Amino acid sequence: MKIVQMDEFLNELQVRNSQQLDIELDRTVLSIIDDVRSIGDAALYSYTKRFDGVDLDSLIVSDDEFDEAYTIVSEAFCTSLAKAKERITSYHNEQKEQSWFVQRENGVLLGQQVTPIERVGIYVPGGKAAYPSTVLMNAIPAKIAGVGHIAMTTPPQADGKVNAHVLVAAREAGVDIVYKVGGAQAIAALAYGTESIRKVFKITGPGNSYVARAKKWVFGDVAIDMIAGPSEICVLADETANVVYVAADLLSQAEHDEQAAAICVATSDEFAQKLSVEVGKQLVALDRAEIAGKSIEAFGRIILAQTLEQAIDIVNELAPEHLQIMVQNPMEKLPYIRNAGAIFIGDYSPEALGDYMAGPNHTLPTSGTAAFSSPLGVYDFMKKSSIIHYTKEEFETIADDIIVLAESERLTGHAQSIHVRKGNVE
């Protein structure tokens, strides 16, 4: 694993970010979106054959397929899934917002009405791995919010079926319907609707670069949670950190994807040297060693900082998706962390804990967007309406001020709507 100085890494990062614009990718995604909008289901069947190698009879997962999934998964999986569901539900229950109203003098009522989004679509990736945990992380907050209809899209396997673990998770989390569609075509179908797929009002969930770009292009016609990039982890480590733990945690993200980023910001050159060796040692034992190896080679870095304060500055500049604080007295450093999607504190809070069982959501802002974005939550599936009620008496106390402001903007129609209530117009 390459060891670099801060300036060297920031230069690398700047070059990498400047190369992210892919015009050809956008052309492909826009073409797919246009096809789905134009010919609906026919485009979905065609792209599923082309990209997934599957001829489907139906886009919708049947009840028989759900029943079959329960015969395939193990009892241990169902038990662990139930534990994860309970913890995720408990955490997200704390996020639910309530409507509120304030009674002012003279009968004025102001407030905010909070209502769930009626229909949402969640995207669950397939391909390199199956992600039942992503089903829980997207569907559970939607159910808590009170969403009326949850649709899920996910790519089919080579046999034309959806991964059994994903289907069981969908049923347990309360997903209403599952479609065997992946990629940009799935996002387009959710955004605009087809003969089989009903249009939704918001799309959530991670995906590959095609999915991410499709979400970007449909935004505005439909809401989205975020445009997620490749997964990333940053470990803040001093000389007291356990090098074996840090190496394992870096590799836990590197195995996601060849584009995943695994970064350690270290304050000790000796620790950095040991970590580089340890990563190589553990890498060869991974089942997904080829994927993780490419990730480490391209995007894995150990950044040397002169002081812990400088290391924290680097972390805040990176705004990582996952941040692990593995230094002496880690809780003391928490107030100085301004930008991170999820923060894991201490030796026994690895990122994998957050992926599956801790409770907080694992759908997180990536690519530096944690500087201005938040994890997926119940609030993403709710919307707010302002409530305003004035009595005649209180209206008349501010009517003239409204007229002055409206006329200053030359919006005489606005002023007129006030005049007529004052009786100034015959």
UniProtKB/TrEMBL annotation:
One of the Pfam families matching this protein, by short name: Histidinol_dh
Keyword ATP-binding found: no
Note on how the cofactor is bound: Binds 1 zinc ion per subunit.
Catalytic site positions: 321 (proton acceptor), 322 (proton acceptor)
Catalytic activity: L-histidinol + 2 NAD(+) + H2O = L-histidine + 2 NADH + 3 H(+)
E.C. no: 1.1.1.23
PROSITE patterns to which the protein is assigned, alphabetical: HISOL_DEHYDROGENASE (PS00611)
Gene Ontology molecular function: any one: histidinol dehydrogenase activity
Binding positions for NAD(+) per the UniProt entry: 123, 185, 208
Binding, substrate: 231, 253, 256, 322, 355, 409, 414
Required cofactor names: Zn(2+)
Pathway of action: Amino-acid biosynthesis; L-histidine biosynthesis; L-histidine from 5-phospho-alpha-D-ribose 1-diphosphate: step 9/9
Enzyme class: oxidoreductase
Keywords: Amino-acid biosynthesis, Histidine biosynthesis, Metal-binding, NAD, Oxidoreductase, Zinc
InterPro entries assigned: Ald_DH/histidinol_DH, Histidinol_DH_CS, Histidinol_DH_monofunct, Hstdl_DH
Binding-site positions, Zn(2+): 253, 256, 355, 414
NCBIfam families: hisD
Role noted for this protein: Catalyzes the sequential NAD-dependent oxidations of L-histidinol to L-histidinaldehyde and then to L-histidine.
Similarity section: Belongs to the histidinol dehydrogenase family.
Name of the protein in question: Histidinol dehydrogenase
Organism, as annotated: Sporosarcina quadrami
Lineage: Bacteria, Bacillati, Bacillota, Bacilli, Bacillales
Name of the gene this protein is made from: hisD
